[in-house]
Glucans biosynthesis protein
Amino acid sequence: MAQPRESASPDGPSTYESFVERARALAAEAYRPAPEDLPQELAALDYDAYQRIAFRPEKTIPLGQRFSLQPFHRGFLQRKRVDVVLQASDGTGRRLDYDSSLFDLGPALQGRSFPRSLGYAGFRLNTGFDTAKPNAQEEFLVFLGASYFRLRGRGQTYGLSARGVAVNTFGPGSEEFPDFTAFRILEPSGNETTITILALLDGQSLSGAYRFVVTPGEIAHIAVTASLHPRREIARLGLAPLTSMFLHGQNGAGARGAEAFDDFRPQVHDSDGLAVETEGDRLWRPLVNGRASTAISAFEATPLRGFGLLQRDRNFADYLDVQARHEDRPGLWVRPEAGNAAFGSGAVQLFEIPSREEYTDNIVAAFVPSTKPVPGRAIDLAYGLTTVGAEPTPLLSSAPARVVSTRVGSAERLRPTNPPNPQRRLYVIDFEGDGLPADPKAQVDVALSASAGAFVDPFTERVPQTGGWRLYAEYRPPNPLPAGDVVLRARLSHAGKVITETWDAVA
């Protein structure tokens, strides 16, 4: 089998700058996809047989005193090989060649072996979250498939994914999935608590170089530096993309055009909303599934302070799923480095794809710059990627009180009709957080808007059980409904000061 075309050389030290030069050189050439050289026995594996391939824990590869690595076997959907080189502190490198003894291959492949050139599909990193017990290591970061990677903090379970880049997600043009083709992992010295990963990306429309400086912990953080090099024009380039799953939740069938789910679990999702922070405001858009077609929303963010797909429902009773533990899944927050021009002008775009399957990621969010990429002109990125658990969190502490739930139903509570009157819909929005008045008699003002139709009779009340405030507002849509989305917004003020983030929804 052929060696990877752009494999990192293990002979000398690599730096981020050398990876940038390799990406620039790649972009000047015609794209050449990786060869389809997966042995038939591995290509033919089904999901269950692939899952039976297990890495042998005693074969884990140490990286310094606090980290270790386990590669992923190729097979099933994970067909492409990535080149992985470990670089010691003296600059010498060693390539991770395939070794079948590292794996229990399961019944379907019992007795089989494969050549060292097979390589691996990706890798996971482990760390000791407890500094007093560095040998008690847990998985916290995975790079596997295209440019996808997953990160979690201590006590969390994997949920949403990040990506290196999104190319033509819902066009115009066909969506592309560039691949991380080569990694160089800089082995930490001694007891270092951060680890640096260099990565080379290649795809039809662009190549790129990445540096990930990873700090695990209760809150996990990655400082991302990247240089993208377009080969050709790209209709829609998504920076710092996030991908998640939302099957059903509070919005349920109450949202216009959304179907109900026949499920014993009250909610099923890895993220329940998108937050977008701009100068002086933060917006919260609850996610919706079940529409007839993909919903695409854009939130102007010039300049962008941050955005993320978050999981705000943190109680087991919200999900009732013992195995999935959706309440422990992290959010991810993207914060551009100050002055990074790539995030200067543009919009955060949200894609909500109809799905009836829990294992399908149907939510995508990314920052799309106003200026389209130009072939031959590099795009330099610098941003932080941080896990978010239960809020409030220091990462978002500067923002006002947050939206914690959105519920929609018939406004005909006293004299209901059957079926309910579609011209009367009640929105109930709960806010929690610092800055909300403790006095239930406080004057709380409501700012409501609808791009079509109207809100009537809004009122607020303090919720003593949570210390938050609740907004009730009846929405009366126009008749007939417009063809496009109707955007609804609300926020609360007290004593002349805005005290909540902006709730945003599509009616």
Summary: The first strand starts at residue 54 and ends at 55. The chain has two domains: 16-395, 402-506. Confidence is low (pLDDT under 50) at residues 1-8. Residues 402-506 form a domain with the Immunoglobulin-like fold (CATH 2.60.40.10).
